[in-house]
Amino acid sequence: MSRRITVPARDVRVTAEADVVVAGGGPAGICAAVAAARTGARTVLLERAPFLGGTATGAMVASFMGFFWRDRRVAGGVGYEVTQRLIEAGGATGFTRYLLAEASENPIEVRTFPFDPEVLKSVLDEMATEAGVDVLLHTQATEAILTDGRVTGVLAQGLFKPEAFGAGVVIDATGNAVIARTAGCRAENAGDDPAGWQPMTMMARLADVDVPRFRALPRERKRRLARQGMATGELPQQLLSLVSSPSGDDAFILMTRVSGFDGSDTRDLAQAEMEGRRQLRGVVPFLRREVPGFERAHVVAVAPWIGVRETWRIIGDSRLEEADVLEGRQSAEAIAQGGGPLDVHHRDGGGLSLIEPAAPFSVPYRCLVPRDVDGLTVAGRCVSATRTAMGAVRHMGTVMAIGHAAGAAGALAARERIRPRDVRVSELRDLLRSQGAVVDSPLSHAG
């Protein structure tokens, strides 16, 4: 039997008043904050971790996808600048061709951007500071502040006490749509069984790996090794996927598969984190024993938190459909382009589905605008899209482009004192173009 208590009402100090408050400093959130500040908005960024980068740093998913469709770059702006600054800082060497899920039954060639997450932390610090963003780490956004039914700020928990942040516009980049949901926005998955959601992955960084030797293995042998690992129970999925930092002798391994948990529920997430680390205790000995190139490998870091692929998505003024992605449809209100594969990991059987879109697809602005809440936009994997469409939208290159657009739109709305849904999309698109973002299909400019 559960019991309830009444928490006494108390006054919370307003720590800051801003034009734009961004909740969440992952790939979408950091790009939103930098874009908003560069567009002239007083910007506050709230992040629960001691560093920025989210999935790219905290979950150690050390490779950006979604910047390209085949050989055409479909994402620019702040996100692309991150990649170039990583190269300058020695944390990456550039985009490279990669056979995604090589050991699976349906691999697909993509262009990825491997990087060192530790260098990325510093790059993001510098970009936020240079743009004038007020960054508050160790600060978890917990709830929307509503005034006359409109979102006017964010309540957050600091290290010791709750704090309030007033805002002209709030951008929810929490991944779980925390601010949108507490504001009363309808969201999908509310009645679904979390056991059916895409599995999570716990990443690890191994040192002393002979990466060239592993890469030289024929694909068929990698498939046999992956099947062997699944048969013994040491590999949870038919993947031998890794990326390497510029040092060349390390490997970030994506080989765990944690199913049946809700990544937005505290208790479930705790169990998922522990299960991910348990699976790594089987994966690493298998690699050392069976896979050429890993004979001397050892773990130097386990990701601070597990990578979550799917939880909540808002109901927006528009919704991106599976057909929009697969057919490469373009919208007159496009604020970002996507090109990465539709990537859906199966809950059972250890497999995944990978489908390349027929052409770059667009993300309309109104997928970022909650249908029934004002004063708020969203960015990242909680935008309005079907579950399947989100399999292509959630690539980090794409969510960084969406974040850039959300930040620029927030700055425009705050400047003009209008609702985010009333932003003139044609003006936003022109602004994004001037900031180096890709809002039009790159195929429309082909010779």
TrEMBL record:
Keyword Acyltransferase belongs to the record: no
Pfam families: FAD_oxidored
SUPFAM superfamilies referenced in this protein's UniProt entry, alphabetically: FAD/NAD(P)-binding domain
Keywords: 4Fe-4S, Iron, Iron-sulfur, Metal-binding, Oxidoreductase
Coiled-coil regions listed in the entry: none
Species per Swiss-Prot/TrEMBL record: Actinoallomurus iriomotensis
Protein name (Swiss-Prot/TrEMBL): Membrane protein
Lineage, top ranks: Bacteria, Bacillati, Actinomycetota, Actinomycetes, Streptosporangiales
InterPro entries: FAD/NAD-bd_sf, HdrA-like
Gene Ontology molecular functions: 4 iron, 4 sulfur cluster binding; metal ion binding; oxidoreductase activity
